Amino acid sequence: MRRVVCALSGGVDSAVAALLLTRKGYHVTGVFMKNWDTFDEHDTCTTDQDCEDAYRVCKILSIPFRQVFYVKEYWHEVFSYLIKEYEMGRTPNPDIMCNKNIKFKYLLRFAMETLGADSMATGHYARTSQGDEQVFQRKSGSIEGICHNHYNDAVKLLQAADPSKDQTFFLSQISQHALRHTIFPLGELRKDVVKKIAAEAGFHHVLKRKESMGICFIGERKFEKFILQYLEPRPGNFVSIEDGKIMGTHKGWFLFTLGQRARIGGQTDAWFVVDKEISTGDVFVAPGNSHPALYRDSLQTNSVHWITGEPPIELQRDKVMHCNFRFQHRMPLVQCTLTRNPDGTVWVTLAKTVRAITPGQFAVFYKDGECLGSGKIMEIGPSMYMTHQVKKRTKLTNPS
C-alpha cells in the first residue's frame, strides 16, 4: 500500500485532497504544521482552530493525524526574512518563501524520513508532468539526496486546470527534488467541484470557513499595528512626485508598498505610493490611481530559481527568451522578453506597462502552461512619468 502524507491546513482544499488520496486506496496520514507562536504577539491567531478543523477531517476519513512544529524554522527562514525585506524598502512575499523553506523542505523531510511516506501531497491547485506512480518510484533513501537532471527529463510544474484557482505562482521557488516527491490531487479539478466533493463527504465545518488572505501561517492582521511590534517607527514625509511638495508625514516607509493608497491627513483627494527612498525616509506619492508614475515596463531580478534546475534551453542558447510574466497571484499574464545575465539574474522587458511593479515581490515566468520559475524583483525601470519628464527636458534643452 502506498503511503502518502497530506499537508492539512484546516481548509477545504487540503481536506478534499486527503479524501481523494484515500479513494485511490493510499494509506494517508494528515499532518498539520504549526509555524507561528501565538504567544509572541498580542493579536489573535486562528492556528488552534485550524488545527482542530484539520483533526476533524482526519476523524471523518478515519486516517492518522499528526501535528508538527516549525516555529523556530519559520521565524528564522521566513519571518526574519520578511522583516529584513521591509527594512530594505522592499515588499516580501512570505507565502512563496514558506512553501520553499518550510512546507517543501522540513515537512517533506518529516514525511519521507520520519513517517516513511512514499510521497507528500498538498491541496494546491497545480499539476506536474508526472503521474502518481512515477512519484512513488522516485522515493530514495534521503530527502537530501542530490538530483542531477537534464532539462528534458526534469519534472515540470504545470498550471492547474482551473485557471482562476491556479496556485503555481506560490510554488515557483520550490526545488526540483521536492516537486519529484509531491502529488497535487486538485490539479485537474475546478473549485466548484472541490466544494461539491467536500459537501458530499460531510466536511461542512471547513466549507463554512472563508479563504485566508493574511500572511502565511500568521493570518489576517491590521498590518501597521502588527509590523510595528517588530520594527521601530521611523517617521518620514509623504512627498509629491510632481513638485516635491511635502504632503504629510508617516511612521515608516516599511508600512507602504508601491500602488497602495496613502491616507494622508488633511488630503481629501486620493494619493498613491509610487516610490520610496529609505535613506531619507521619503515616500513619494502621486494623485490618482492610474498616474503614469505607477506604470513601468522593465525590471531586474536576482538569480532566477528555475523549477527544472536549469534555465530553459532557449535562454541558455540565445541568452534571450520570450515568455509570460506576473508578479501577483491573480494578475493576468503579460508577454515579456528575458535577457539572461552571466550571474543568473535576468532583465525583464514587458510588452506593455504594468501598474505598481514592486521590489521584493517575485517575478514568476510562464510559457505554454508551464511555470518556469521565479526571481525576486531587485530593481525596477523608470516609470512612464519619469520617462516623459526626461523627454520633455531633452526637448526643451534641444528644441531643434
TrEMBL record:
Its EC number is 2.8.1.14. The keyword Lipid biosynthesis does not apply. Residues 224-286 form the tRNA-specific 2-thiouridylase MnmA-like central domain. One of its GO terms (molecular function) is tRNA-5-taurinomethyluridine 2-sulfurtransferase. Residues 297-377 form the tRNA-specific 2-thiouridylase MnmA-like C-terminal domain. Transmembrane segments: none annotated. It is found in: Mitochondrion. It holds the Pfam family tRNA_Me_trans_M. It is an enzyme of class 2 (transferase). InterPro entries: MnmA-like, MnmA-like_C, MnmA-like_central, MnmA-like_central_sf, Rossmann-like_a/b/a_fold. One of its GO terms (biological process) is tRNA wobble position uridine thiolation. GO terms for cellular component: mitochondrion. The keyword Nucleotide-binding applies. CDD domains: MnmA_TRMU-like. Keywords: ATP-binding, Disulfide bond, Nucleotide-binding, RNA-binding, Transferase, tRNA processing, tRNA-binding. It catalyses: 5-taurinomethyluridine(34) in tRNA + S-sulfanyl-L-cysteinyl-[protein] + AH2 + ATP = 5-taurinomethyl-2-thiouridine(34) in tRNA + L-cysteinyl-[protein] + A + AMP + diphosphate + H(+). HAMAP family: tRNA_thiouridyl_MnmA. Belongs to the MnmA/TRMU family. PANTHER family: MITOCHONDRIAL TRNA-SPECIFIC 2-THIOURIDYLASE 1, TRNA 5-METHYLAMINOMETHYL-2-THIOURIDYLATE -METHYLTRANSFERASE. Catalyzes the 2-thiolation of uridine at the wobble position (U34) of mitochondrial tRNA(Lys), tRNA(Glu) and tRNA(Gln). Required for the formation of 5-taurinomethyl-2-thiouridine (tm5s2U) of mitochondrial tRNA(Lys), tRNA(Glu), and tRNA(Gln) at the wobble position. ATP is required to activate the C2 atom of the wobble base. This is Mitochondrial tRNA-specific 2-thiouridylase 1.
